[in-house]
Amino acid sequence: MPTASPISRVNDFVVRFANVNGSGSASANELFARAILRMGIPAAPRNIFPSNIQGLPTWYEVRISEAGHLGARGGTDLMVAMNPQTFDKDIAGIEPGGYLLYDSTRPLPASKFREDITVIGVPLTAICNREYTDARQRQLFKNIMYLGVLTALIDMDIKVVEQLITEQYKGKDKLIAPNLKALHIGRDHATLNLDCPIGLKLKTTDKVGDRIFIEGNAAAALGAVYGGASVCAWYPITPSSSVADAFTRYCAKLRVDPETKEARYAIVQAEDELASIGMVIGAGWNGARAFTATSGPGISLMQEFIGLAYFAEIPAVLINVQRAGPSTGMPTRTQQCDLISCAYASHGDTKHVLLLPQDPTEAFDFSALSFDLADRLQTPIFVMLDLDIGMNHHLCRPFQWEDGRVYDRGKVMTAEELEAGKDFGRYLDVDGDGIAYRTYPGTHPTKGSYFTRGTSRDRYARYTEDGAAYVDNMQRLIRKFDTAKDLVPRPLIANADKPTKYGVIYFGSTAPAMEEAIDLIEARGHAVDRMRIRAFPFHSSVNSFVADHDFVYVVEQNRDAQMRSLIVNECGIDPVRLVPILHYDGTPITARFIAKSIGDHIDQMSVKPAKVSS
Amino acid sequence: MTYLAKPKFHHPNLPKNSLGYTHRDYEGSVSTLCAGCGHDSITASIIQACFELAIEPHRVAKISGIGCSSKTPTYFLGNSHGFNSVHGRMPSVLTGANLANRDLIYLGVSGDGDSASIGLGQFAHCLRRAVNMVYIVENNGVYGLTKGQFSATADRGSKSKRGVTNTDNSIDLVAMALQLGASFVARSFSGDKQQLVPVIKAAIAHRGAAFIDVISPCIAFNNHAGSTKSFDFVREHNEAVNRLDFMASRMPIEVKYEPGTVEVVEQHDGSRLALRKLAADYDVHDRTAALGFLQHHAAKGQVVTGLLYVDREPEDLHAHLHTVETPLNVLSEKELCPGQAALEAINASLR
Ligand SMILES: Cc1ncc(C[n+]2csc(CCOP(=O)(O)OP(=O)(O)O)c2C)c(N)n1
Ligand code: SF4
Ligand SMILES: [Mg+2]
């Protein structure tokens, strides 16, 4: 008998699937998430997977929230425990009053179950062994079968699931009927033998709207297509490889000459990250829009080249899908841990532009924008995704493109201008914004050629070791970086309903959890203003936001409070007023964690010295 | 040393090529290398080859790594864009540049340290990727710029200026280039302009990965007794497989040599190479035999020079990627951006 009363909620709960990597569960689980979206209920799935191809535990968590909270919440209301290896831990993670669905073919000792949860056993293996003889089929249909069980347990619209299965196997029509059959075997078993529905229920609504459901990596790749990238050089690394894969797919569809069928793009899988960034820099130097996609270890390898691109002023775009470091770290877990290694990448005095998208829609927008910024600023631009944004499907605003939008190719001197006698100095700051004109190789027979190098030079690109000329150039690079502050996406501010001395700064994939955390913090009676930073270098509003509050919480997903360090360093702010809120165990940050950390801190700050009671 | 602009004095009687350019128009700024450095002779041969081929100087992109050798692109083709990149990574920069604009001529200049030591990986991969380029290694067996340490091409048993003997095996970049699939492979000697100029011309006309290893003695650190990359050593141990005459497509072929000793090789653009055979049994189209020939002579302490291999039907990276004829760097929004209608269809597929 459960000691906590069973949770009863509609369109607001968390389902977690525990599976074994390589068992074919992924497509059944994804069907589950998609069906909920088709019912008009916002949902956010997250894959927690190992660095392994087969055999290790994986989890798939679906946050269902009619209110639209799409961040990770923490805790599980319904656990679908299909992996005996992790059974104990999975059961421990269920909320009091929650539910457990497990394969009861082999009875488990009662000691395995908790008193305060509802245990639902279905002999899935036994049913599959009865229905199928082929071992692979037994495994695959077991997944669809538990999906069938779930449709009955939580009142999922069976028509929607049937429709999705039909769409999924379009073209492989032979597979539709057997999948539908497995689905119904599971559903029928549940209706006949179990108390359906349980306390957790779905109800069709219209809260999804016109939103789309996509992974951030695919969105960033599509942004690169729209932003005009024609050269991509990359080296495989989790969690960024699917950026190049998606770019390849989209280009094959969208970038082929309709008549000749020839490619208006070049994609090279390089021999390592040194070569991929080298190719990007070579292409950028030669006037094509080029990018690479990588993750932390790749960024480490690229350091020398990044400094060259900074100093020689060559456009380049690096999409960094961050994963937990240092070293190989937790390669399939998420973090925001490369801020400093990217912002100050390479030896010597360097600073780079970082864009910090919050979801796939912004990944698309910022990826497209990064090519304009790279050309305008003639420098490397980092688009900072993370595994959570990149490799999970997110429900987000549809993509939009303004037809007629012209690419900003920056300051490029043409053959006509050279011919007309315009003075060309490759490192001459003619406009006072720190940005000089460049020429593409091959522009003019006798004018406008110059030598690009990583060594110091004068304003006319002539090699020099003269200290004054060196300083002059380094100062101009700082002017250029200042120019960048007004070109990059501005921070977004949302103020609390009442004046408050507390502020919070956050960025990237923390956004959905933060939105929900604000509700929770307000429910505790506290007010906080918030700022979402979307780029580095910081706009001046970051300074004023900090100045306007006594305490500013800086929420980030790394150990060393890297964003806080950047703010302290770049804005010259007293670190005491910036309170770090850090989550870095490799799982996506949760609303509960943020709300508790900030709420507890504010409580502490507002405690009056205790009075001795009479 | 700061940049010295070379006085551009044009003698009215200087010979002009078919474009009306003189030799001077292919020069760069004054070399800052040691007087007598082999690399300067290679620079002179590059200038000569480009002048004779009547290449528009600005249609060449010169890309190098780091080293004395990698500095040389400043000393030739002053009207070309140049890129002195990072140590050992010229091939990737060149590959990217080539992807962006397939219409320029790519001249990669590197050293033996740059290509065989730190950059061995990039050397290998750009050759197997068949990038259309001329890749020249100015090979002195040492790191000139960092003052004479052995590089990976230093022969085992050779002595440094300080008297240290190299005990590591050496890398033969020519053998590697053959093995890696380069479609044009040659070796020459900086002191042999007669051989080097036509080899460079032929390599430029070749549409594929052309590799030239040029032995180029370092006066400062590798021109002493005991060095196998010194002027004297190379002169004494040079085993030339052929002498080369290069004819651009528009020139008539003059076969000046005895029948049976001349082989005419037609290149993709219609230009022709006339090979004056020294080694009668040498077949310039046989990759496997070239490797055998090389190793056979190396065992005897001989340095084989000449055009060792040329593929009659070379292919390049753009052919493998099926890229459009138009250089990617001139494509506009119209060709690059699919527009809102396509995006709406994508949105619809994501619901
Ligand atoms: C990453 C890095 N490591 C070391 C160096 C120092 N360095 C400069 S040139 C050079 C060797 C050049 O040798 P080679 O390519 O043979 O050129 P050479 O000077 O002999 O023509 C070295 C080690 C460097 N520039 N960069
Ligand atoms: S050190 Fe050697 S390689 Fe360098 S310039 Fe002098 S002679 Fe040439
Ligand atoms: Mg050398």
Work out the count of structural domains of chain A: 4
Helical region count of chain A?
19
CATH superfamily of the largest domain in chain A: Pyruvate-ferredoxin oxidoreductase, PFOR, domain III
CATH homologous superfamily classification of chain B: Thiamin diphosphate (ThDP)-binding fold, Pyr/PP domains
CATH topology of the largest domain in chain A: Pyruvate-ferredoxin Oxidoreductase, domain 3
The helicity of chain B comes to 25-40%
Number of domains of chain B: 1
The parts of chain A where pLDDT drops under 50 for at least 5 residues are: none
Largest sheet of chain A: 7 strands, mixed
By DSSP, the count of extended strands of chain B is 13
What would the average pLDDT of chain A be, to the nearest integer? 95
Can you count the beta strands of chain A?
A: 23
Mean pLDDT of chain B: 90
At the first level of CATH, what is the class of the largest domain in chain A?
Alpha Beta
Describe, in plain words, how this protein is organized in 3D.
The complex is a heterodimer of chains A (614) and B (351). Chain A has four domains: 9-201, Pyruvate-ferredoxin oxidoreductase, PFOR, domain III (Pyruvate-ferredoxin Oxidoreductase, domain 3, 3-Layer(aba) Sandwich), CATH 3.40.920; 214-396, 3-Layer(aba) Sandwich (Rossmann fold), CATH 3.40.50.970; 411-488, no CATH class; 492-606, Rossmann fold. Chain A contains 19 helices and 23 strands. In chain A, helix 1 (25-38) packs parallel to helix 4 and helix 3 crosses helix 4 (135-153). Chain B has one domain (23-321): Thiamin diphosphate (ThDP)-binding fold, Pyr/PP domains (Rossmann fold), CATH 3.40.50.970. An eight-stranded mixed sheet of chain B has the order 2-1-3-4-8-7-13-9, with helices on both faces. In chain B, strand 7 (184-189), helix 7 and strand 8 (209-215) form a beta-alpha-beta unit. Bound molecules: thiamine diphosphate (TPP), iron/sulfur cluster (SF4) and magnesium ion (MG). Residues 66-69, 87, 111-114, 138, 140, 142-146, 151 of chain B line the site of thiamine diphosphate (TPP).
